[in-house]
Design goal:
Elements lengths: L11 H29 L2 H11 L4 H25 L3 H5 L2 E4 L7 H16 L4 H4 L10 H6 L2 E4 L1
Antiparallel strand pairs: 1-2
Helix pairs in contact: 1-2, 3-5
Length: 150
């Protein structure tokens, strides 16, 4: 729990840095996925054959879907239960509700959906973080959340 009497809201650029850390971690995960696919289809020759024939084994598509769903589930779990993504946690940031508590799974789902809404019009809903006192993006306002320093 974080005290919300005099919270120190995190600004735009520190949240961007957290996103960069998360992106690097995600890149490593997807690189490992690519390495798995590459080795299982017979290396470069197998990839070239798939490209020329336009045929991709069904298991690759299923694995892509499973990995995407797993990533979304992990993000929702981390934000809802642990208080942030790896980048936010590394930088000492927490996602909290108006009471300073973790937002829980329902709050994290609402916040995740809110990110799509916030990004619809040129990302203006995401840029709102830089221009309001409580440093909330549209997704934070939708979910009733704040990102604060711990």
């Amino acid at each position: 729990m974080v005290s919300m009497k005099n919270p120190h809201y995190s600004g735009f650029w520190i949240r961007v840095l957290a996103l960069v850390f998360d992106g690097l971690l995600g890149s490593v995960i997807f690189w490992l996925f690519g390495l798995l696919v590459y080795s299982s289809v017979g290396g470069m020759e197998g990839l070239m054959m798939m490209a020329m024939t336009g045929s991709v084994p069904a298991w690759i598509s299923y694995l892509q879907w499973a990995l995407s769903i797993a990533v979304i589930a992990v993000v929702i779990y981390m934000e809802g239960i642990l208080g942030g993504t790896p980048g936010k946690l590394l930088l000492g940031l927490r996602i909290v509700n108006e009471k300073g508590d973790h937002i829980g799974i329902p709050g994290a789902i609402l916040r995740y959906i809110g990110k799509f809404v916030a990004g619809i019009i040129l990302g203006i809903g995401l840029l709102m973080v830089a221009f309001n006192v409580k440093k909330q993006g549209l997704h934070d306002k939708i979910a009733g959340t704040y990102v604060v320093y711990t």
